[in-house]
Design brief:
alpha/beta; TIM Barrel; two-stranded antiparallel ribbon; 10 strands
Length: 283
């Protein structure tokens, strides 16, 4: 496993385990515990995933020293304000059973996220979180935030996979000193990614699967990846990407798969903004 150094000097694993759409309870607890036992040290959850408690139980049950884990959660739009963020952060800490976070992210650029980010800056300065950042901030929003805040985001988690590569957005992040992190690194199964002929043929050269090639491609772009699975065999396979390196020719061939747009979600769609703005995760 390789680490990447964030803009504040904190080291973050370049591969982690995501729990989006993993139901709360024993399914999530077991999946996270399996992931930790398989060698994952970065665990990525969110208040809106409604499974922070299960993640916290797995962390406690794992027996791994807290300082050796890198735990991320996210602020939902319902709490996007200065006071809301302060309360939501404490709620997430309680759910996880932790006394600090390694990374706290704004989940969407919706609502009073400037007020929320100011609260997060204070939490960071108080030592309650080791790094702060954002999700789904496209270049204009990310640039604006960096220019008007004291603490630049350390991470921007966005959709990144072979079919939506976002090279321009990644260049913008790197110019600003922000580490890109990929949600949906498997494109949520679209384009037959797990059996895609290009990825499969490249993988054959290394004795790797198409999925492993897709993950390796992203980390070679210095993009952190957080694949998800509840099956131990796949959990182990997804972390088995650190013993090979794709050639420049392989990287170029994968770059030709980009369709230049998301087929998962359109963050510029007013209907989507209305939907997530109305989504409540607590009273």
């Amino acid at each position: 496993m390789e680490n990447i150094i964030l803009n504040n000097g904190v080291e973050m694993p370049m591969e982690g385990f995501g729990v989006f759409q993993v139901p709360d309870g024993d399914v999530c607890r077991k999946a996270v515990l399996d992931a930790i036992n398989a060698g994952y040290r970065l665990i990525d959850t969110a208040a809106a995933y409604m499974n922070e408690e299960a993640v916290g139980k797995a962390i406690k049950e794992s027996g791994v020293n807290r300082k050796d884990l890198f735990i991320t959660t996210k602020l939902w739009t319902q709490d996007a304000s200065y006071e809301g963020a302060k309360k939501a952060f404490r709620r997430s800490l309680d759910n996880l059973g932790l006394d600090y976070l390694d990374l706290y992210l704004i989940h969407q650029p919706v609502g009073d996220y400037y007020g929320a980010y100011r609260a997060m800056e204070e939490l960071y300065k108080e030592g309650l979180v080791r790094a702060i950042g954002v999700c789904n901030f496209y270049p204009e929003r990310l640039t604006d935030l960096v220019l008007h805040m004291d603490v630049a985001p350390a991470v921007n988690q966005v959709e990144l996979h072979p079919f939506f590569q976002q090279d321009k957005a990644i260049r913008n992040m790197k110019e600003l000193g922000v580490v890109p992190e990929a949600w949906g690194p498997f494109a949520e199964g679209r384009h037959g990614i797990f059996t895609h002929p290009v990825l499969t043929e490249i993988g054959r050269k290394y004795g790797k699967s198409a999925a492993q090639v897709a993950l390796r491609w992203n980390v070679q772009r210095k993009v952190v990846v957080i694949p998800k699975s509840i099956h131990m065999e796949r959990i182990k396979a997804n972390i088995d990407i650190w013993d090979f390196r794709l050639s420049e020719e392989d990287m170029d061939e994968i770059s030709s798969l980009d369709i230049g747009k998301s087929e998962i979600v359109d963050h510029s769609d007013p209907a989507f903004i209305s939907m997530i703005s109305g989504m409540k995760i607590h009273e």
